[in-house]
User: Fold this.
Amino acid sequence: MLERNNIKQIVEAALLCADQPLSLDQIVAVFADDECDRVIIREVIDEIERECEGRGYELKRVASGFRFQVRQSLAPWMSRMWQERPPRYTRALLETLALIAYKQPVTRGDIEQVRGVSVGSNIIRTLIERDWIRVVGFREVPGRPAMYGTSKAFLDYFGLKALDELPPLPEIKALLEPIEAELAGAGPEYAPPLVSFEVDDEADIEDAVADAVDEHGAIDVLPVSGTERGS
Amino acid sequence: MLERNNIKQIVEAALLCADQPLSLDQIVAVFADDECDRVIIREVIDEIERECEGRGYELKRVASGFRFQVRQSLAPWMSRMWQERPPRYTRALLETLALIAYKQPVTRGDIEQVRGVSVGSNIIRTLIERDWIRVVGFREVPGRPAMYGTSKAFLDYFGLKALDELPPLPEIKALLEPIEAELAGAGPEYAPPLVSFEVDDEADIEDAVADAVDEHGAIDVLPVSGTERGS
Amino acid sequence: MNPKAESLEHPPANVVRLGALREQSADTIAVVSGEAVSELPVDLYIPPDALEVFLDTFEGPLDLLLYLIRRQNLDILQVRVAEVTRQYMEYIELMHSMQLELAAEYLVMAALLAEIKSRMLLPRPSFDEDDEEDPRAQLIRRLQEYERFKTAAEEIDQLPRMERDIFRAYAAAPDLGITKAAPEVDLKEVLIALASVLNRVEMFQRHSVQLEPLSVRERMSDVLAQINGAPEEFMPFVGLFNMREGRMGVIVTFLAIMELLREGLIDLVQNEAFAPIYLRAAVN
Assistant:
């Protein structure tokens, strides 16, 4: 049997790191059989709930269980965090989505095998949060990996009635050709855009470069003096 | 100006519902200009950190800012919640990552030079997709190979504030000492210590050699007859 | 051949390392039982039947050599060239069937060892010819440098990390009135991403990804979700068909079930002939 205080810490931690509400059963399952019992867990949950008073978040009971949620009264400040322009999805995410659409039902391992690259769990989480993919089952192999498929919301977002309105593969490959031709044709003439900035003090150069890198991705630094340009 | 307790709740809530660690600047940006100032926010963060004592989670400072995370000691229970096993990384990937972390900026060629094998492009791609490494420039040699460095996300993932929190790079360990000594300048004059033993019976030689090896490690066997020494 | 020398050449269990022996007098290196021994009793290294297991374990020739030196006490400078060559050829044979690009690197390393050996057999050049570095020094330096990063990689692997040891603490956001702005995606972007990944696959391996008709794929997901969402373990086969979808819909569902069956994702259960058929998630 674990100490009560230890049990409380574990329950609190479990609720905080789960990405969905946890039912009482799910919380119980976090413990080994002899570590604690249901009654204590119930009591501990009540305690945790009381202790949230005065903090920025509270323990909520929703249909599927318990979850921590930021207090509604703080919504105005929270919404400031998301007012910035949404970030763009990464290439990795789009490839993962495409593979799920065309090869569903697939596991993360299947996707990794095709892409040759490991798929971060944040990609899967983002796609699930966006409601574009869902877990459709588990493959009965060691580890019971989840199998993913696309959802109705995915079809709706992309204006499709059914998945077979997606173009067949040969057409997709054709999509790539103009892009490749462009890249191939650009050849040695391809010139990256120039970013210029002035610095008065040499000590500022590093900062300026760092800012430019943040904004433009990788950059080359060319020496420029006065209004002359280095080649 | 907001009340201090209110500020604390907002900071706590922001840290709990942000997707990423929040820098001080990002926390400040959650407030309107006249609501509070930087100094108070700093103090409030310290307070929050102290108040986590005894709870299941802690406030941790990593490269890109502050984040709440479950106490390390509770990790065994947390991993029971996930059906999927955490990703494992191959030795090839970890060695590549180590080289980039400790020797940045490095090119793929630099990495291959040390590892003695070619670095698969899927390794570099995985590292870039995980956002652990990025292109920091190009080396001005034929082919202009990209140079890689690690990112803040790499440090965040491993719970580090800065690169110097990585374990120090292991020191060079002696390998084949006699030859190293010779190469270091002892030159052909280097003479290993002599171990001598006598055997009456030819059949005992093997045993005697084996004993001497046990005692002295590697030995050379030089022919010796009577009291004369072979060179 | 003297039987004593013979037995020394093939020592029983652990390899006796006669280290630091330089072949200054070219042929005679030791006299055992009055007989000159001109070959060193250094036997490699890896039992041949373990070869395949080992290949997976090594990150390349440097890694293999480090292992041989550190664990097997191999004195790489005393290796019999013929033996090394034979062993490396075996590796290469095996690698041929596994990962071709590795073989060249092992071959280079075997050549380097052979070069070192042959230099040592030649008369020693006068010492201050510093036009070229001693290949032994070069090799040792490379091995040591590699070893540092190999160890560093192991240490990084031990660091606490997200997904395994570090778990972020989250709380759900309150209702913000606004929806958290999500990135906009154009379908074309998704398709281009797919095209590029398929392209890559074809570059690296010959066989291309096979895809079922999409309508079947989609239905496979639906069927699986229905089976997994079913309160009982079993789902009646006929319950999966929606007659309002018409003939085509039925065929698509049927093909989806067949494909799921083929991929081992579901089981069909029937108690006796003509009894109702049930589906359930596959169990091992």
About this structure: The two ends of chain C are 61 Å apart (CA to CA). Strands of chain C lie at 30-32, 35-37, 235-236, 266-270, 277-281. Chain C touches chain A through 55 residues (CB under 8 Å).
